Amino acid sequence: MRREPSILHVDLDAMFAAVEQRDKVSLRGRPVIVGGVAGRGVVATASYEARAFGARSAMPTAEARRRCPPGTTFLAPRFGAYRRTSEVFMALLAEVSPVVEQVSIDEAYLDLAAGDHDLSAAGVTAVARRLKAAVAEATGGITGSVGAASSKLLAKIGSDLRKPDGLLVVAAGEERTVLHPLPVSRLPGVGPTTEERLRRAQVHTVGQLAAVPLPDLIEWFGQAHGAGLYRLARADDDRAVVTEREAKSVSAEETFDVDVADRGRLTRELDLLAARVGGRLRTAGISGRTVTVKIRHHDFTTITRSLTRDQPTDDPRLLAELARRLLADVDTSAGIRLLGVGMTTLTDFAQDDLFSSSSPAAPDVDAVVAEAAEVAPEPVEPVSAQWRPGQDVRHDDHGPGWVWGSGLGRVTVRFEGPATPPGPVRTFAVDDAKLHPAEPPDWTVPA
DNA sequence: TCTGGGGTCCTAGGACCC
DNA sequence: TCTGGGGTCCTAGGACCC
């Protein structure tokens, strides 16, 4: 924790609704809901006028319609407009400090210690006031709330406590005075589940949380979350303001208006989702190794199925093929409400390079596949095959597949057959671009 | 008309390796 | 042929955030 309140948290107030009210005079001063307006939509942002009637973010739009009076305006989001406003906002922040951490489209941390600023409480207050005025001016009247403190935790809580259009500077040394009276739900990381578990232990405020022994918290919440709560309750937070973070996953999903059971339709949706993910991977210049399919059933139970390749890809067609295979193992006959495709284990080089001319000569993959199918004790159909050069293949290699010989690389073949459970991977070692069969394959897949 | 879409981080078990 | 511990990777699920 620092000795000065040099971390700022800035958050635009009900940004989506505020942009709509800015752009349409007739909406000003009136309840506005922005979010999904179709059957299964939820509220993204409720204007403060709508919040007065109980509308909240993440609430089903249907529920918000019930709560809000006639005359409430329900709008689908205009992300382009929000993005433009966000860019103006972020540009202003960059003028205040070179170290800006954008958290979302409407929220950021600033490290004032990285700029040339008076870091006294009075000095930081002056900076924050000027910033708020500049934001309102540059965005056409969108207001923001600012918290300043010696840590991210208190800066964030400070802006929360004073919104909308507020400012709170927490002087160094005052952190726990501000923090301890608050309900535990104000802490980042305390959602409904954690709040309920704490309530059962008669822990309601952050001050009460600070009195719980560390071993208890770890027992209740696990090592990471438990230790995290222990520290946050003490205002012990030294997280740095970081400007860049690498993406860890890219995904796309869709909730259908009505549950979908039709396999043809699902396959087409899957292809579209894969195309979106692949397109975004390519735009970002990254590839991934792990493909995940997400399915939400009619009762909201959600499952994922994933597979990890040895080589990364950003190819939408391959992505779609792998996703189809994963979906094939899921029973969707009762209809599903959501379908999603994701890519993780991301790397920032293109997979094509791995197969370039510097690699050993590729074997005749078709011949390898044919030979493997030949020795199978039952009719099988190769689904895919991949040549992977430079793999260190050894005789004692074992695992879900098997390997023959040793050599320059492997050909991995995926088969499907009547007696073979779908998807087993068979690996063939290749020496001098030739298959080296050593012993008959065992087609039994371990239970 | 119950519950979006994009993410992050964590846990736990099993396989595998040394 | 009996026993083992640590580390990594993979898979699946869950809590949480904006």
UniProtKB/TrEMBL annotation:
The record marks 16 as: Substrate discrimination. GO terms for molecular function: damaged DNA binding; DNA-directed DNA polymerase activity; magnesium ion binding. It comes from Actinoplanes auranticolor. Monomer. NCBIfam families: PRK02406.1 (NF002677), PRK03348.1 (NF002882). It catalyses: DNA(n) + a 2'-deoxyribonucleoside 5'-triphosphate = DNA(n+1) + diphosphate. Its EC number is 2.7.7.7. Residues 7-191 form the UmuC domain. SUPFAM superfamilies: DNA/RNA polymerases, Lesion bypass DNA polymerase (Y-family), little finger domain. This is DNA polymerase IV. InterPro entries: DNA/RNA_pol_sf, DNA_pol_Y-fam_lit_finger_sf, DNA_pol_Y-fam_little_finger, DNA_polymerase-Y, DNApol_IV, IMS_HHH_1, Rev_trsase/Diguanyl_cyclase, UmuC. Mg(2+) binds at residues 11, 106. Pfam families: IMS, IMS_C, IMS_HHH_1. Gene3D superfamilies: 3.30.70.270, 3.40.1170.60, 5' to 3' exonuclease, C-terminal subdomain (1.10.150.20), DNA polymerase, Y-family, little finger domain (3.30.1490.100). Keywords: Cytoplasm, DNA damage, DNA repair, DNA replication, DNA-binding, DNA-directed DNA polymerase, Magnesium, Metal-binding, Mutator protein, Nucleotidyltransferase, Transferase. One of its GO terms (biological process) is DNA-templated DNA replication.
